Amino acid sequence: MNLPDSVTRRRFLHGLAALSTFPAGALLAEDPGKKNAKASGNCAECFPVGEEKILILIYPGFTAMDALGPEYFLSCMTGARVRFIAKTAAPVRCESGFEITPHLTFGQLPEKPDLFLVPGGAGGTLEAVGDRVTCDFIRKAGLSSTMAGSVCTGSLLLGVAGLLEGYEATSHWQTLELLPLFGAIPSKKRVVFDRDRVTGAGVTAGLDLALELVRLYRGDFYARGVQLLGEYDPRPVFPGGGNPETAGADITGLLNEMHRPFVDRMGATIRESLREKI
Amino acid sequence: MNLPDSVTRRRFLHGLAALSTFPAGALLAEDPGKKNAKASGNCAECFPVGEEKILILIYPGFTAMDALGPEYFLSCMTGARVRFIAKTAAPVRCESGFEITPHLTFGQLPEKPDLFLVPGGAGGTLEAVGDRVTCDFIRKAGLSSTMAGSVCTGSLLLGVAGLLEGYEATSHWQTLELLPLFGAIPSKKRVVFDRDRVTGAGVTAGLDLALELVRLYRGDFYARGVQLLGEYDPRPVFPGGGNPETAGADITGLLNEMHRPFVDRMGATIRESLREKI
After folding, report:
1. How far apart are the C-alpha atoms of B213 and A98, rounded to whole Å?
2. pLDDT 10s digits, B157-182
3. How far is CA B84 from CA A96, A101, B218, in A?
């Protein structure tokens, strides 16, 4: 418990409820006039427990889940401002084909964000790795943020932007081998914190990464509240099936064989991108 | 294994790879001209393993994760068409404040969808429960689909639309008690299949629900592939912390106390909505 007494604890959770996804209605529904409390900042007045500035990059072809899993848990923090930032103001098409409208453009980078998070993808990430404007922005946003992080192949973008040199980091299990290209030290952990960097493994690891961040920013009790609100009690169909070391040699080998061309091409693009910078 | 031989198995996974989120680049990156293969249907030709029509309702204030978690896994099925459907063509603002562009409007309901899925929310779901146009559409879409399902408080919308009478079902743990209002039988299971209905518990249960559906539609091997691609090997910060029965009486009791007004108001709105129909 990080909270001094039960009254504070209740106000704390009340504040959490005001902005979290599920229970917002619990408070807001009592007074329709309060519906826009989040936008107007009234909820922060209810209980001003935080005001983290969190930016999540979105780019054409990004894997939506890499960005939206973290967004779910992070936006449960009362007062935190979680915003999607993109090259232009136009809706950004994710890999599976739907569009999300960004809140901000590269030109509107806020001062000193607390967190800058980069999602991964496949073809879209390959293109982004080769896109100077995007990589330069990632470098700028990462360096100006208290912490820079990634989910899945997003770590390849952090790396090409020069943000992972000498850092322990992770990535989707199939692209872990590429991390040394830019001086990162590959880790098989699901979430890796190393000083001012945090990286998550493939896709759904973004949920675990975000919940760790909620704990970091708001403490254990808050994070427990968020986990319970999101009913995050996962029961994967195949226990161990999401980890290459336990999923079975048949499926792991097959996927590795299938994706060899992608991993090779990503490696070549990363090398080329790094050469151009010299 | 549902697959007859290793060659078929490889082609099967190859098809999966062509459309799934992570490895799409593995194939598409080899030939930039194939980038729009998904849209043009070329990938279905590579290996036409399925053509499920899946609709996910989005409405103002829906919890993004309830819809996008399932979208992630379901869109990994080669050839499946996963589409967001909304009242109008305008971008729909989710509860945490960002906007998603729907693919279809209520007037464009495809014939005989395989699955119609309804996400939950808090204040937004309360409004939707009281919105005749939305509830009528849910009824129409649900009845015309092979299976109708929900995540989190989305089951309250299915129920008000008359689609859960006599069915075992679940909901967010805090709204389970409301299911009998429309004749559903509450279950504490994370994912509940009952004939042509499937319901998931709160928010993140949508991931488990979707993976169960992938298994249902494509078999064990395919579902294993999807789970491994999404690296779905969850490690919640607090083991058991996402289940009200194991999260601890302190946090569970506190959240229950806080959300009593919301649950009561939702109950009243459901009763009113059901009365109006008589």
Report:
1. 21
2. 999 999 999 999 999 999 999 999 99
3. 12, 15, 21
In chain B, what residues touch A27 (CB-CB under 8 Å)?
261-262
Domain boundaries defined on chain B? 8-48, 50-277
Give this prediction's pTM: 0.86
Gap between the Cα atoms of B38 and A113, Å rounded: 36
A227/B247 touch (CB, cutoff 8 Å), yes or no: yes
Residue keyed to tokens 């043009």? B40
Three-state secondary-structure class, residue B219: coil
Residue B99, classed as helix, strand or coil, is: strand
pLDDT for residue B278: 60
- B50-277: in CATH 3.40.50.300: no
Q: What angle do CA A232, A237, A238 make, to 5 degrees?
A: 115
DSSP code per residue over A190-204: SEEEETTEEEE-STT
- The ipTM assigned to this model is 0.86
- Count Cβ atoms within 10 A of the Cβ of residue B237 and give its class: 0-12 exposed, 13-18 middle, 19 or more buried: buried
- CA A148, A152, A155, A156 dihedral sign is negative
pLDDT digits (tens, 9 = 90+) for B46-81: 333 689 999 999 999 999 999 999 999 999 998 999
Å from B215 to nearest chain A CA?
A: 8
Assess contact for A164 and A150: CB atoms under 8 A: no
Sort out which chain A residues have CB atoms less than 8 A from B62's CB and list them: none
